[in-house]
Design brief:
Two copies of one chain form a homodimer. Chain A is an alpha/beta fold.
Chain lengths: 353, 353
Amino acid sequence: MSAPVRVAAVGLGRWANVLATAYGRSDEVRLVSCFSRSEDKRTAFAERHGCAHDGSYAALLARDDVDAVIVTVPNDQHAAVIEQAAAAGKHAFVEKPIAVSLPDARRIEQAVAASGIVFACGHSARRLGGLRKIKSLMNSGEIGQVSVIEAVFANERGLQIEARNWRGDPGKAPGGPLTQLGVHQLDNLQYLLGPVARVATFGKPMYTRVENDTVNVTLLEFESGQMAYLGTNWACPGVFSINVYGTEADLFYQLDFSWWSDSNETDEHSRLTKRAFARATDDPDDFELRDEEVRISSVDHLRDEVEEFARAVRGDGTVEVDAHVATRNVAVMLAAVRSSREGRIVHVDELMG
Amino acid sequence: MSAPVRVAAVGLGRWANVLATAYGRSDEVRLVSCFSRSEDKRTAFAERHGCAHDGSYAALLARDDVDAVIVTVPNDQHAAVIEQAAAAGKHAFVEKPIAVSLPDARRIEQAVAASGIVFACGHSARRLGGLRKIKSLMNSGEIGQVSVIEAVFANERGLQIEARNWRGDPGKAPGGPLTQLGVHQLDNLQYLLGPVARVATFGKPMYTRVENDTVNVTLLEFESGQMAYLGTNWACPGVFSINVYGTEADLFYQLDFSWWSDSNETDEHSRLTKRAFARATDDPDDFELRDEEVRISSVDHLRDEVEEFARAVRGDGTVEVDAHVATRNVAVMLAAVRSSREGRIVHVDELMG
């Protein structure tokens, strides 16, 4: 066993605490220090997680005992923070989405390429036991050839957003739940079906006090020719579901996302059902269907993603969600926002150039 | 109790037999005669269902003991058959879709208006206990305000269609499963949310020998501003589902459509789940969800629709799915086909104009 990779947390909101708790379950990373502009936040975080704290980001980056930064600052600050890390020779892990604009995503890609640091983006949903099982059932041919996947991610957030909250601002959270929730499923969909070619989206503010969209529906067509639907909704009780339609079987996956932060238990609150033909004859009226539960292995998705990052930092393998993969997720998300605003079908190439 | 309305079956394929079996359970209609160009078919049908048979459609329409015709001839012959019935003063019930072109649908609307006959189209799915329950939960406010409905109708038909079968011909079944399956859900969606304003569709032939679409995905925006997704698929094990997203609760409805023809048992093979907040606080992390089964009354949907038609023939009330409602379903279906072919969002008004 190699020595653990030494990481420092930059940005100390709720999510930094969730990640640090998951890292406490790993022997492959060790939390060394932290930084936030708020002194109260950094002393509280350091005490809670048993690490040092630094008075400035520059001081943190100057430490010899820090190999990598874990970035959870607001999305529109990702690029600047990662550029500084890269310039200091520190590897970087950033929460999703990599950015909320493509110029920002490009800056990150360039900083990573120029410096040679290891970089990963935290799209952990694809690491869930349920998603891994869906992917393996697709790869094995057991469900035949897949035509369509439907993905939904919804919660009640839009019903409660106060006026002037940044989530209600189309500039800061374009498309509302499309950016804040949808990017999880866009990563899952591109993980399962490859690159998206074009999208059509309807979206609008519904049942909310803010001017931003709170409900969107999106169609996606992939370069493979396969198709998908993405529903993103901030105006209903929570849903996280994925349905896969194959020539031999359908899969229905439901996850109770309220267990998301407890990443060692998330999979236990999910359910995967496979529907196949119980009887298939030449007579279409004579088909019978059978539903069965599919066993899912439990994966600690937040620990899993940081351990892969740590191994890559030590020169052992590469990361699954690098800057390129994460940028592609943002490009599709922004294509969907553009489709909704302009009332037309948008090709992702328009944005990727 | 009034005397039963006397009906005659025109077109004697599989579906005519299914309907006649359902009518056998009713005291409000009585099957009097039948006609098909095939003498074998009409004698077999007459024997099986205990009715007379006529040697020509004109002879059937000339009978004094026939009040109404039940039309299950191929979709593109509906207009001519109904026009003749109207000219003979016979009321008419026709299987869905009312037509596969808007000029044909217009001919039917005009024949009905000019003659004053009672006319109904067989969109029986909205009569299912599950659909009635969804509608009543929406009307009562129990699930709050609805933003989105997702409807899926899928089966394996496209995997087996032989080359030259009419279902594989884009001229006879435009959009493939969009026409053959989707029109059921389009009626359900317009029943639940009102008229559709615009649609976006991706569709194509997949995993099939025919040139027609076998898979489509569609977005719908309603005049109310609410939105929907419709998935129609001929390349997977069967699915018939409706999900409703409301501010207070979500509804998940699944029906095993292989029980469709046994209309007195269909509802027993369906399941409606309601997801609401078990605990809601000011902290978004502190929400808990609870799923519960909703009891569904069983409705014999094929008997129910013909009994409503029979009552209207006797002057008691009107029908729910008249020529106007049925034409609107076809207009949305054809708008979706156009959207897919032309790669753009299509307003239903373009077709209804």
